[in-house]
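Q: What would this complex look like in 3D?
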Amino acid sequence: APPQATIRRLSVYLRYLSGLENDGAKVISSQDLAGYLALNPAQVRKDLAYFGEFGKRGVGYSVKKLRDHIIKILGLQQVRKVAIIGAGGRLGRALALYTGFEKRNFKVSALFDNDPRVIGTVLSADAGEICPIENLPRIVKDRNIEILILTVPAQAIKEIYDLIMLSGVQAVLNFAPFKLISNENVVVNNVDLTTELESLSYHLRLKEAG
Amino acid sequence: APPQATIRRLSVYLRYLSGLENDGAKVISSQDLAGYLALNPAQVRKDLAYFGEFGKRGVGYSVKKLRDHIIKILGLQQVRKVAIIGAGGRLGRALALYTGFEKRNFKVSALFDNDPRVIGTVLSADAGEICPIENLPRIVKDRNIEILILTVPAQAIKEIYDLIMLSGVQAVLNFAPFKLISNENVVVNNVDLTTELESLSYHLRLKEAG
Ligand SMILES: NC(=O)c1ccc[n+]([C@@H]2O[C@H](COP(=O)([O-])OP(=O)(O)OC[C@H]3O[C@@H](n4cnc5c(N)ncnc54)[C@H](O)[C@@H]3O)[C@@H](O)[C@H]2O)c1
Ligand SMILES: NC(=O)c1ccc[n+]([C@@H]2O[C@H](COP(=O)([O-])OP(=O)(O)OC[C@H]3O[C@@H](n4cnc5c(N)ncnc54)[C@H](O)[C@@H]3O)[C@@H](O)[C@H]2O)c1
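A: Here is my prediction, written as structure tokens for the whole assembly.
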């Protein structure tokens, strides 16, 4: 099976190919694709070969065909409905109002929180009002939510874990600094923005050490 | 040199070891560290061996020593000052007000934007008022800013690129969906939150395909 890093690079290729198609480009070589993205051409070829894309020697890949294929591989032909837990908070609100998700086929379709002061607030027409967290299982089923985004404090993760499992959702994107583990029913991606800063700090230290 | 993925796992080990130390644990085996984090014990040992940490056979690693060592490896003994460009926007504002960064030694010390309606706003006492983007090079030097966080639209990246290079900053965390490439002076981490959703969509498609 292709590694996680290959799947993430597919998203980067997709974004670039979409730009190329808009500009009217018909073909692209692994050399050019790699050059623009500061990647290794052999790595690009290896990533695409996992999915049977080998390109034509000396010509490269068809921009349209490759783009359409990556869209299918990532399952992006249909709209994926997303819900945000902690939508009354700072990060939750920023994600709920972000128009960039819809451009790439993710639609924020439900919002949840446990703070009575924010329940009932309407952040956007599509997502409707912020619902109480107890209604999560019912609303996930009613609105066919496929992905839950967690923007609650780390200590709240344990409180809502059972509700998440009860809801039947199969994918979770967790922003709390607490590693939530995938199981056979739910795949979890953990994003810790502070880890991103720590990885930059590592490089700063290397420069300091000379 | 250790791979990027090893550096990111160090952050995860650090977070877990800090919790253990708070609970009074003295030693931990690679088995237990891996078990709790759903990782492979051999991977944990390999990650730590890059930095000369081998643990004692049958006993494991000293929690305190290992934690202190990882803090040094990641360069987290001192406070790293951070500035946010696009601080008047939704994501920028959420990051500017986030108290979690300071707990891990990152201090938001300057805010920038180009929208006259938000310039002069004070989001937090530490960061001061939102400054005009033209003042970036001077303020980065005056306040010893080491990391820039970019939360501007993708098309604004080209506009501010020269100012970023002029500022002399050595590390950038970019949230705009536009791959900014590292060079010999500036290391860049690109975070595309939509790519996180696309990687989850890939797993959803695999389940759909059965
Ligand atoms: N704000 C950021 O930029 C940022 C950056 C990195 C990480 N994070 C992480 O994202 C999470 C949210 O951060 P924030 O700054 O938005 O915090 P916040 O306090 O502004 O928002 C948290 C929200 O979660 C809600 N909540 C708490 N417990 C809940 C529960 N049991 N069920 C439903 N809702 C619940 C709260 O009512 C609140 O609206 C935290 O885990 C934080 O560590 C945030
Ligand atoms: N909001 C989110 O949850 C989210 C999620 C994923 C990605 N992003 C990305 O993060 C970035 C910010 O998103 P947002 O939703 O906060 O947008 P936003 O429009 O709310 O904020 C953008 C801010 O950047 C400022 N800006 C624009 N051009 C500038 C320039 N040349 N110099 C300085 N400041 C400038 C604007 O004045 C505004 O305050 C975008 O690239 C977006 O794609 C945001």
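A: To summarize the key features: The longest helix of chain B spans residues 4-22. Chain B touches chain A through 58 residues (CB under 8 Å).
Q: Very helpful, thank you.
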